[in-house]
Amino acid sequence: MKRPLISFLTAAGLLTPGLVPARSADDRPAAALQPFVDRHQLAGAVVLVAAPDRVLSLEAVGYSDVASAVPMKTDALFWVASMSKPITATALMMLVDEGKVALDDRVEKYLPEFRNQMVVVERRRDRLVLQACPHPITIREILSHTSGLVTRSPLESELDVLPLKIGTITYGLSPLQFSPGTKYEYCNAGINTAGRIIEVVSGVPYEEFLQKRLFDPLGMKDTTFWPDEAQLARLAKSYGPGPKNQGLEEIRITQLSYPLTDRAKRHPYPAGGLFSTASDLARFCQMIGRGGTLDGRRYVSEQAVRAMTSTQTGKLLTNGRGEYGYGLGWWTSRYAKGSNGPVIPGPCGHGGAYATNMSIDPERGLITVYLVQHAGFPGIGGGKVQEAFHQAAIRAFGK
Questions:
Q1: Domain ranges of the chain
Q2: Cα 303 from Cα 46, distance rounded (Å)
Q3: Of the candidate ranges 91-105, 192-206, 352-366, the one whose mean pLDDT is the lowest
Q4: Which pLDDT belongs to residue 322?
Q5: What is the strand order of the sheet 54-65 is part of?
Q6: 7-90+219-397 — its CATH code?
Q7: Residues facing 55 on adjacent strands
Q8: Looking at residue 316, what is its pLDDT?
Q9: Contact 4, 332 (CB under 8 A)
Q10: Alpha-carbon distance 75 to 87, whole Å?
Q11: Contact 242, 249 (CB under 8 A)
């Protein structure tokens, strides 16, 4: 999964909560993406720009179905993949707020299958050496990708084939890939384990907890692991580069099993199984951006939001310049840390496998949601398309 492109948030723009409307059609963020559609590098997109208290712009460009020339609409549904991670982390932080879980609790306290784990200290083609783990992994480590857990179970041929209870048993029985807290390695299994802890502590299925505690009260009516038939009719088709990296070719979501509506065969995947819309994700981001409240209702405490959006990885995660970090379920600015100070210490967000992204800039009061459904862009890097949107958002709504 790609890290979010949030460099625009740290640029020397003058975005403020007092944002001004776009001056013409050419100034709108979606207009910046039209050239990519015209060159058959982008099928279509839904883009949203919001302030903490209102949506400033919601637009669609291109097509949800290229072959049938179906125009993209602003209520289109997308597989948002790893954008599920901040939602799972937020749900778990609700239990932290209630005193039912602590971030530095051992995972084995809730899931006994994680007791007495071993860690790999040497790996060769014909030799695998294990030793006792220096300390049991903690909830903080599974949320910050520093636990050492395997990335995914060898039984997960697709992401959604195992019930959470079975999946976490396989994670617990697998040796850790490194000593907890010594390395950052992006790990779906850790976030899935967090989802299982939500079930064990709350006494209700993970997906039911999300529905009752987040999706229903926030009005996220189109956020689900199982799109129904009406939602499937709005699902944007997925694309990858065509032959010889020319044009676009329709693809299936290969990480998921079909049919997508099958609740018996498909299981919720906390690290990356959700489908959603730009409007739903904006509601979630507004709640986080406002320190855990929206429309007069508190969902999580300011302390919980600060913990999630503060950098937890220290110097373990760098991109060559050291400007990015990871919090608890959220990408962060490397230097966004501290238990005191602003509720959100700096820019944060998350992306998904098919190039989706959401981001929050607390200093400038700007939220962006960028939804496409692409496993690659012919002739260009996907970051170029996303950055074109972000820069257009600055031009349209910056002072």
A1: 7-90+219-397, 101-207
A2: 32
A3: 352-366
A4: 60
A5: 70-71, 54-65, 44-51, 366-371, 357-361, 348-351, 331-333, 324-326
A6: 3.40.710.10
A7: 50
A8: 86
A9: no
A10: 20
A11: yes
